[in-house]
């Protein structure tokens, strides 16, 4: 589980307070690539592309200047990650497994440029309908599922206070629902709405901030769900995952919310099936190359990005290693497709 990669011993180290000599010994970025710099400059300013987390030794030469231990990257890698020409956001997946404090969020914020924005996952404590074992098996119903006060106290408030204007998107990723809940989706939609209405407005502190809901059940893809999100000032997170239909079948949700921002998390290639994380991890190895290229998804996503940014709304897109084999290389490929689309107009 992600939390094992970020134990209490692996807390982020605030960069500004570290002595110059110590910083020099920390994680360093890969050498500057002029072609990547030019590519980044060709993208719409409102587009922020990044990856899911950053603690992967296999990214040596792509993001890091050399191979570093995973624990070192967990603690010290964010500052180097944020110096990559393309990366202006990152999905802070750690927050899903354990709520983070104001101080932890602030420590992350101190390590990135002023223009960097975080995509943060809400804790599973309130976003998962089940209490799960270490292997992910549901053990019993979660009494705190979609609790409005919990969402406010353990997520929205500390993230907003710690990250401040660097909040990009606060994402409630709802794990797959058990059958009894799937049988009454309208009730679950009402409960999601009650939770969202309890959250503060992000704009006074984070002008670029967006609240989004990501689901792992296609039963949510209804006009009623879109209507609730609009009424609550939230948006639909485009979740590119094998548990969900392909991107084309999710786009009606975005059309129902148009015009508005884009939040997209591309997590898992469809070839691996709904439960294929371990298979993808085995096949993709060090995550240093594209194994399963998906040009169709790149093209469809680039079209949505262009429309969103043309309408002057922010677009947050994060990619996981298990989307195609290497999140940094997938990000470069997506950026190239977006650039080429803009040039062709």
TrEMBL record:
Offer one Pfam family short name for this entry. DUF72
InterPro entries membership: DUF72, UPF0759_sf
Give the residue ranges for region: Disordered.
1-29
Q: What Gene3D superfamilies does its record include?
A: Protein of unknown function UPF0759
Protein name (database record)? Uncharacterized protein YecE (DUF72 family)
* Organism of this sequence: Panacagrimonas perspica
Q: What lineage is this protein's organism placed in?
A: Bacteria, Pseudomonadati, Pseudomonadota, Gammaproteobacteria, Nevskiales
